[in-house]
Specification:
Helix content: under 10%
Mean pLDDT: 97
Shape: globular
Distance between the termini: 40 Å
Structural class: mainly beta
Largest sheet: 7 strands, mixed
Number of helices: 1
Number of strands: 11
Order of helices and strands: EEEEEEEEEHEE
Oligomer: single chain
Radius of gyration: 13 Å
């Protein structure tokens, strides 16, 4: 069993930056690929980024490439999402996800979800 707790959300102006963190419980963090999804009001949850177990490989949705960076610290059981140049349309609840691989997470085949953290981007 893995529990995921997100933090770092908040209010930021358009063009600003935020760094989200997701702390995982348990000793098996390094056995999972990790990812981030987001869900805006009235919209479906969408994939944002994912990282493999050892942190070497990453994958991003096209709209965030060059602005967002996913990383992980297996010693701290934590995955991060650095978000730069945020846009108002990226205001959403951001969810941390754990899965078997980047491909699994991208496909929505997620083993564990966090409860989410709100990101608000003012224009």
């Amino acid at each position: 069993q893995v529990q995921l707790v997100e933090s770092g959300g908040g209010l930021v102006q358009a063009g600003g930056s935020l760094r989200l963190s997701c702390a995982a419980s348990g000793r098996t963090f390094s056995m999972y690929a990790m990812g981030w999804y987001r869900q805006a009001p009235g919209k479906e949850r969408e994939f944002v980024a994912a990282i493999n177990r050892n942190g070497i490989n990453t994958y991003y949705t096209d709209s965030v490439k060059g602005r967002f960076t996913i990383s992980r610290d297996n010693a701290q059981n934590t995955v991060y999402l650095q978000m730069n140049n945020l846009k108002p349309e990226e205001m959403a609840v951001y969810y941390c996800a754990a899965g078997q691989s980047i491909a699994h997470i991208f496909a929505g085949s997620v083993d564990y979800w966090g409860l989410g953290t709100q990101v608000t981007v003012s224009s």
